[in-house]
Amino acid sequence: xxxxxxxxxxxxxxxxxxxxxxxxxxxxxxxxxxxxxxxxxxxxxxxxxxxxxxxxxxxxxxxxxxxxxxxxxxxxxxxxxxxxxxxxxxxxxxxxxxxxxxxxxxxxxxxxxxxxxxxxxxxxxxxxxxxxxxxxxxxxxxxxxxxxxxxxxxxxxxxxxxxxxxxxxxxxxxxxxxxxxxxxxxxxxxxxxxxxxxxxxxxxxxxxxxxxxxxx
Length: 216
Description:
With about 220 residues, the protein is of the alpha+beta class. Helices cover about 55% and strands about 20% of the residues. It folds into 3 domains: about 5-70; about 70-150, no CATH class; about 160-215, no CATH class. The protein is built from 10 helices and 4 strands. The chain has a 4-stranded mixed beta sheet. Helix 7 runs parallel beside helix 9 (about 140-150) and helix 8 crosses helix 9.
């Protein structure tokens, strides 16, 4: 019999005639390796080509996926992915969450542009602005830029000059405690005022920040 001309249905039927080893999800690495060896030996005994082996493995994985991830579950995870935002997560945590949900939206996972856009759009406003203005080429580039932007915005405080506050008549309030800002050249600057909820616009994206007033 010409195995290369055998239809997929016949290949699957012959394959399923044997008592197939199964994985239940609680196995260790040794058990998984043994399972792969058993499957490989079965393929050898059936004299299946590499292409047929790949087709059957893909089929088995699809069945596994459908069994353990029903349609309702996949839809819920897809909806969760669509509304995913970084929020209080750091970039590493956001990337991990993004990756864990990505498998439930193959139409985005297989499209580099859509995947990159979805990732960027979910970033915090201040990080989104820095990443989006640099126009990353792909998902990995966007992820690396987001990590860099997170480091750039990681300062403990943001500052504004006293002259700017006076020029624009910005309301200020006393700080809960005096802040001393150390200069790289030595010495320090004392501040006792805070301007809250300053609106900054970067490429039509509005963010709000609190600024400590420095008497420069």
